[in-house]
Amino acid sequence: MMELRNLKTFQTVAECLSLTKAAKQLGYTQPTITVQIKALEKEIGYPLLTHVGKQTILTPTGKLLKKHTDNIFKVMQEMERDLKNLDHFYGTLVIASPEFYCANYLPFILRSFVERHPQVKIKLESCNSIEALNLVSSDKADVGIIAGASELSEIESTVIDSEDIVLVASPELLKNHDTAYVLENYPFLVDKNVEGMIGSSLSEINYAPRSVIECSSEEAIKRSVLNQMGTCIMGTKPIEDELKSGDLIVLHRFSEKLETSMICFKNRKQETAINALFQLIKDMWGK
């Protein structure tokens, strides 16, 4: 197999078309240059250089080898640059997250991240938790913030927060009816962000809704419940203000907690930008 050292020497000679200049540029003696070129010629089986008077020129084989040698060292330079950039990430970091987290948590964290890593471009994808997990697992997003956790073996899932899970309704619905009547006769709105834990929560209160409306927007569900469309199960943080003001009331507080997790591929967590973002989210989330 050809030695890279000999190929580098040949590349320099081919550019200088002078053994003397090449030797000076590489810091070798001229006899060393000659030995290395001869070694290549012996391995290839064809001469690489010829002389016309005092001028050194490339043979057809020399021109062909020069073309491939240039490509080899170009790829090596790109590889070395990319490896160095592992410590100085640049490019675009795609983050997928539900709208509530995008609006209430990530702006402050991402502002701090960009101040520390101005060379990084951030792309924020607002979606539900299921979509965020799909984007990360299909490598269309680098990092995801989701309600709950991922059970995929290839995904690293780190819990960053937890909150109570509650069944809520508008107090207007209960002015003329008791809770049992409301649960029996009004639709149950399902937040697809947390549908994984809906079943166990409903089992806790032995409730099987007759009418179900699915929605992937927490805000849409909250507005629907405020407008007396029905009841829903949600984490307490998106409806914290409404619970304090009394615009929504808790019909049941469940024993299970709703976790918030950040996710990425396990084999990518140690990448500089992703690791830096993970640390910042853990330090700043909810503060």
From TrEMBL:
Q: Does the keyword DNA-binding apply?
A: yes
Q: Which GO terms describe its molecular function?
A: DNA-binding transcription factor activity; transcription cis-regulatory region binding
Q: Which UniProt keywords apply?
A: DNA-binding, Transcription, Transcription regulation
Q: Does the keyword Signal apply?
A: no
Pfam families according to UniProt: HTH_1, LysR_substrate
Q: Where are the transmembrane segments?
A: none
What protein family does this chain belong to?
Belongs to the LysR transcriptional regulatory family.
Read off the PANTHER family from this record. Answer: HTH-TYPE TRANSCRIPTIONAL REGULATOR (PTHR30126), HTH-TYPE TRANSCRIPTIONAL REGULATOR GLTR (PTHR30126:SF40)
What is this protein identified as?
DNA-binding transcriptional LysR family regulator
Task: Report the source organism.
Answer: Scopulibacillus darangshiensis
